[in-house]
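Example record

The entry below shows one chain as it appears in the dataset: sequence first, then structure tokens.
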Amino acid sequence: MQYDVTVIGSGPGGYVAAIRCAQLGLKTAIIEKYNTLGGTCLNVGCIPSKALLDSSEHFYNAAHTFSTHGIDLKDLKVNMGQMIARKNVVVQENTSGISFLMKKNKITTYTGIGSFVDKNTIKITKTDGSSENITSKNSIIATGSKPTALPFLPVDKERIITSTEALNLTEVPKHLIVIGGGVIGLELGSVYARLGAKVTVVEYADSIISTMDKTMGKELQKVLSKLGFEFLFNHKVTGASVKGKKVTVTADNQKGEKITLEGDYCIVAVGRTAYTEGLGLEKIGIQLEERGKKIPVNDYLETSVKGIYAIGDVIKGAMLAHKAEEEGVFVAEVLAGQKPHINYNLIPGVVYTWPEVASVGYTEEQLKEQGRKYKTGSFPFKASGRARASMDTDGLVKVLADNQTDEILGVHMIGPRAADMIAEAVVAMEFRASAEDIGRISHAHPTYTEAFKEAALAATGNWALHI
């Protein structure tokens, strides 16, 4: 079969790229090695983790806040079997939806491992060992990433686990050890902390979510500590072992002293690594960068081989599903002769703990490093009428604006529904709005987004109204 475009990988970047290519009139195929479409995000990442986060949040509120609302319950307990079953239904509905979209857009779907024979020929190896070749004028590599492994810490997938296995535990851990204080570890740690587990986070750096504005990390640490999290910063994990149902983790602290932790599960969440194995890149002359993992691309996301593009986790930049989606659309439109654009500085980042953390633009630390003069304004949710009504008073909104022009340079928020609220900041910054612009826009009362308005007023000239 001859195609205009073939996409290898059906995660958010891959399937969105395929849809946009088909919409633009290109004959399109997509190759996925697993039986379900959607990649890591839909199957073992974004979607199932959010399903469990929502379920655990309901349980936590039922146990801790319902009585304050005048709702009395008794004999409350966790049904892990049902919780996991609901998560699986959510995953199945989403992956089925992607299959429907492939059919709707007349995209040919192949199941198997795609690898390059030459720049225009792709071999598809199926699970039964058989194979077939297809030809394609252009190809888009969208094979995503996998959990990063530590060579000195073997994962047995039973007691020492990755995020994938953490989505299917049949019991609530008594003591969950999380190696890594990034987004994945904190989200999954939150799930089980809400259900009653003791959670210990072992982090090599001196803070959690270290790539975000430092204020966000400090605030999130306060909130998670109230949930029962314990944090061990500046600790280097040296190993882990399993004996029966017990996991023993060893680490060196900042003083070089050795410590030992014992738990019943340990999640290794130290990041993700680009997945490029088996693509046959060496056959077509593509060499990897960044310690042999990432695929180098130009400004059009084209590799060193003309007609072969790469998007998402396999190339430089943040490993975010929505970043991959934007790149998928970008490449499709480039292939159709259009002139798309992505502002990478305005791709938001989110941590789906509760309260949520969301960020876009420059952090305060980055502005200091640049030597750029800026103003800052913040507003706490404890001063928000809507947040008081919902008992969600933890957190704040922080706005950074240029000292001379008042243009918004960064927005960082930790609070209720921050993941949704950050979109207003992205829109504002795409149109290069000033902090005063946001301060003068009418925000419905009472809403959480009023906190953004107030923080913008504070950045503009200490004009905040409710603090």
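Notes for this example: The CA atoms of residues 119 and 284 lie 6 Å apart. The longest helix spans residues 80-104.
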